Amino acid sequence: MAVRKRHLKRKDSTASSTSVLAMAPADGDETVADIRTPEQPLTGRTPDGTAFAVPKTRDMLQSLFNPLTPKTTFDIVTLAMLSTHLLVALFLPLAVKRTVLMASFAFWRLCYNGGLGWVLNWQSSRHGLVAMFKRNGWLDPSRGGKIHLWLKSELEAKMGNDYSFEAVPIEFNAWLLYRQLVDLILLNDFTAYFFLCSCYVGSASDSEPWQAFLRIAGGLILLAFNLWVKIDAHRVVKDYAWYWGDFFFLVEQSLTFDGVFEMAPHPMYSIGYAGYYGGSLITGSYTIFYASLAAHMLQFLFLSLVENPHIEKTYERPPLAVQVIKRSRNRRLSLALSDPGDCAVDDAVASGIASSIRERPTSLWHPDLIIFKNFDLFRASDILIMLLLAYSVGIPLGFMWATGHVRLVLVYSICQCVGWILFRTLALGFLLKRQSTSQLITRWYIKHGGNGEEAFTSWRAVCNTATIMTYGSFGLVALAAYHWGDADYSNLILFHTLGLLLIAFHVWSSRSVYETLGDFGWFYGDFFARDPSMLSLAPADIKLYYTGIYRYLNNPEKVIGQAAFYGLALISRSWAVFALALLLQICYFLFSAYVETPHMEKIYGAQVRRESGIVRTVKKAVSLGIGQPLFLGSEGYIDDESRHVGEDVPESSGMANLLASTTNPVRNILLETRGLLSTTTARLAERALPSELSKIDHLGCYGLKLLPGAAWRTSATKNPSNKAAKSTYFLGEPIRVDWQAPLNHSRRDWIGIYPVTANFSNQITTVSSKGRYVYIHPDENLLAEMVVGDSVFAGIVKGTSKVNMAAANGERSSEHQSQKGHPRKRSSGTVSVLHGEALFSSSALPFKVGTYEMRLHHGGTHAVLAQSKPFEIAVCDAKDIVGMLGDKDTAEQHCPAESAAPANEPDGLDGLALALLTVVNRVFAVADSRVLPVTNQGGVGEGLLSDVCVETDIVEPLESIGDAFSVDEVLDETQAKRLGYAIKEYFGVEFSSDVLIHAAKHGATVHDVAKRIIEARKALSAYSSANF
Prior knowledge:
Elements: E1 43-45, E2 51-53, H1 60-65, H2 73-91, H3 94-126, H4 128-136, H5 141-158, H6 170-200, H7 209-242, E3 250-252, H8 274-283, H9 286-316, H10 320-337, H11 343-356, H12 380-403, H13 406-438, H14 440-447, H15 452-481, H16 489-522, H17 556-560, H18 563-572, H19 575-604, H20 613-624, H21 628-631, H22 640-643, H23 654-662, H24 664-693, E4 703-706, H25 710-718, E5 728-730, E6 735-742, E7 750-755, E8 773-775, H26 780-783, E9 795-804, H27 805-812, E10 830-840, E11 850-857, E12 864-867, E13 871-874, H28 881-885, H29 909-924, E14 926-934, E15 947-955, H30 973-987, H31 993-1001, H32 1006-1021
Parallel strand pairs: 5-13
Antiparallel strand pairs: 1-2, 1-3, 4-6, 6-10, 7-8, 7-11, 9-10, 11-12, 11-13, 14-15
Helix pairs in contact: 2-3, 2-6, 3-4, 3-6, 3-9, 7-8, 8-9, 9-23, 12-13, 12-15, 13-14, 13-15, 13-19, 14-15, 15-18, 16-18, 18-19, 29-30, 29-32, 30-31
C-alpha cells in the first residue's frame, strides 16, 4: 500500500541516557550493542533501585567443554545428561533410538518453552524466583547454612576475579543460578535434536542424484545461515540478554539496532531457527520436518506469551499501575513546589481544559471496517460489502456445487479476480496519482458540497471494499481450481502445511503493517492531508519513521504482501492461482514505482530510505567478509544511520496467535471437565478438613467484619432505618474489612471475595478468587513478591486485645460445625488476638453488580477460618455519583467555565462529565503500597509484632474532565470492558470495548465521552419510558 512506509511516531520507549536498558533476551528481538570500552564495567540496577557493577561472565561452551576448566556440580550434571543421548544414539536399535530421541527432544523442548517460560513469567510478574530465594534464605549467609555455602562455591567457580558473592545483589546471583538451568535445558534440547536428525539421515528417496545434491546443499546453507544468525545475535546482545537478564535486573547501556537485528523481527525466533529446516532438508524426512515445525511453533508461543509482554511492560509501555502511580507522585511533587497563591496558573489550566474540548468526528466513535475487523451488522456499508461478497463468491460456489460446472465457474472466477486486481492496483493507483498531483478526489467532493473529511471517509470505504473483494475472488479461484486426485498423501500434507504457513505469515505481516501505520497510514492518508489539522485520523505529526516491520523492509506489501495468495496456490495445486498471485505482485510493483514512491519523495524528501535493513545487513556482511563479524570479537559494525532508526514495538507473532486460537476449543473442553470434577474434588478434600483444622489453636479467634461504605454513610443521615445500606457498596468503591486472628496465626492467611452462590461448602473454598484477595498480615517473605501496583498486600495490624474463648466458641459453634458433624477444636480461657484491617481496591475488587461474601483462609490454603456476612455491590443514581464516590470539595475545579449547568446535575453536560470522571477514576484506580518498618506495634511487650507493615493509598490518574479517559492514550481490553460495564450500570448507555479502545487511541477526553452519553440518552429516551 502507498502509505506502507508512513510510520506514526511512537513515544520514546527508552529512558534517559543514564538508564537506556538492554532488552530482548536469548533469542530476543530488541538488540543491545554495548559501546563501552572493555575497561568500563556495566552498571546494573535492581527493581528496588540498587546499583552495582555487573561482573563479567564466562563463555558457557568454554567452561563446559574445556577439560582444563574446573567443573562444578551443574557442569557434571549437564555433561552426564548430554552423554546419555550419545549412548542412546550409539547402542540402541534404530527404531528404538528414534522413539527414545523423539521423546527426549519433545521433553527438553517442553522444558524450554513450557518450564523456562513459566519460570520467566513468574519472575516477570511477581519477582517469583528472586522471592523464592529470599523466602528460603538459600543465598543468605545467616540463614542458608550448607546450601548457601554450596551455592556460593558453585557460582564462584564459574565467575572471574571481579565477582564477589556477597557484594552483588541477590537478583544477580539468582540470575547466575538460572543460567545453569538454561544451559542444562538448551544444550540437551540441541543434542537431542542433533542425534534425532542423525537417526534419519539417508531416509530420503531421491529419484535423481542432482535432487539429493540440491537438497543437501540447501540444508547446509541453512545450517550455515543459522550459525551466523546465532553468533551475530550473541555479538549484539551479549550474555546479559542471551540469558534473559532483564527479567532479573536492568543494565545501563546504549541501544542500537544492527547486524542480524536489521534483517527480521525477533531474529532468534524467526530466521534463527532456519537450521531446523536445514536439518529437515539434509535428512529428507517428513518426521524431522514436522517435529521441527512443531518446535518452532512452540518457540513462537514462548515469544508471544512470555517475552513480548515482558518487553512491552519493561521498555515500551509500563503497566497501568506504574503509569498511574508515577503520574500521581509527579502531581504531588508539582503541587508541593508550586506557589499556592498563584491563581494565574489555575486560570491557565482551566483555559487549557476548555480549549481541549472540541468536536469529535463520528469516525472516532464508530471505527472503520478494516478487512472484517470492526464489522457492524447494522452499518449500511458493511451490509453492502457482505452482499457484494455473497453475490460474487457465494452464488458461484453454490452454482458449482449444485450443477458440477467447475470449469465454467473457474473461468468466471479468474476473470473476476483479474478485474479486482486491476481495480485495486491500477484504477485506485490512477486515482491516488491524480490525488497526489492535483487533489482530484478532494476537489470533487468540495465541488459537490462535501469536504476533505468526507473525501477521505469515502476513499477508505472504497479501498477496503477492493481489498475484501480481492481476497474473496482469490478464495473463489482456489476453491474452483482445487484438485489433488490420487496425489501422494505425504505431498498433499506438505503442500497444505506450507500453504497454511504462508497464509499465517501473511496475516502476521498485515497485522504488523496495520499496527505500525494505524488507520491513517493504512488508507494512504498523506495523499489527502499534509497538515494534521486537516483530517481527524491524522497523527500529531505526519513524518516518516522506519519502525516496526518497516525497520527490515521498506515496503512489506510489495515484497511479502501476497504470501497468502501463494499459499492458496500451494494448497489448491493450481497454476492459475499462482499466476494471479504473480500478477498481483507485479501490479503492486508498478503501483509502488509510479504512485507511492514519487509521492513519498515529494512529501518526505530526504527522509525516504534508499536501502532496507535487510539489504544493508547483507552488504555489510559481504563487504566485511562473512567470517570477520562472526568470529573476531564483539566489536560489531555500527553505522550512523542505524543509530537514528526509531525504536520498534515488539510485534506478536501471527503464527503464535494462530496456534493460540486453535487451542481454545481444547481449552474449553478441559475447563468443562474440570468443572464437572470440581465438586467431587471438593468433597474429597472436605473429608480431611476437620482433622486438619483441628490442629489449629484458637479457631474461635478468627473473624471478619465489614466496615460500612458510602451507602451507609449517606443513609445514616438521610434514612437511619435503612439497615441494608450497611452491607451495600457501590461499584468501584474500595471495601474495608476488619479482621482478627490469634497472635500465632499464619502470615499467609488471606481473604478472598466470592459470589455467595459460588461455594457450596462453608469449610472449604472450591472456586478461584480470580485475583480478588488480600493477605491480612504479610511478612517479609511474602512482601518479596510485591510489585508496583499490587493490591493483595493491603492488610495491616492495628492492635491487640484479649478474647474470652469460651464466649467466642459459644457464639461461633454453629458456624464452625463440620458438615460431617465433627466439631472443630475449641479453646478455653483468655487469649491475645490481633486486630487489623484489609483494604480491597483496584484489581482485588469484583467489578460486577451482585451479592458477595468474604472468606478468611488459612495459610495459603482454601480451608475457611471465617466468613463475612453477605454484602451487595450496587450502583447509585447518576446524580449521586460525585457525592457517593468522589471528592465534593474538588467538584467545582474540574468543570470548565464554558458550561452553565450545575456540577451536581447529571443531565447537564459538565455535571455528567464530572460524574463520569469519578467513575473513570474508580475504574483506573490503583493501589500505591509502601513497606514501612514497624517495631512493637500495638504496644505488645513481647515484641511479637516487630515486623513490617504496608501503607496503601488509592491513586486515581485523572484530574479534570479535559483529561483523556485513558492512560497515555492506551486502553487495554480489560480496562475497556470494565469501563463499558460501569457506564452501562451508572448511566444506562452501553458502549462496546472496541469503541472505547478506538476513541482512547485518538485522544478522546472524559468530556467527549460524557457528550456522547448525553447524545445516546437523548436518542434512546424518545422511545423509552425509562427514567435516565
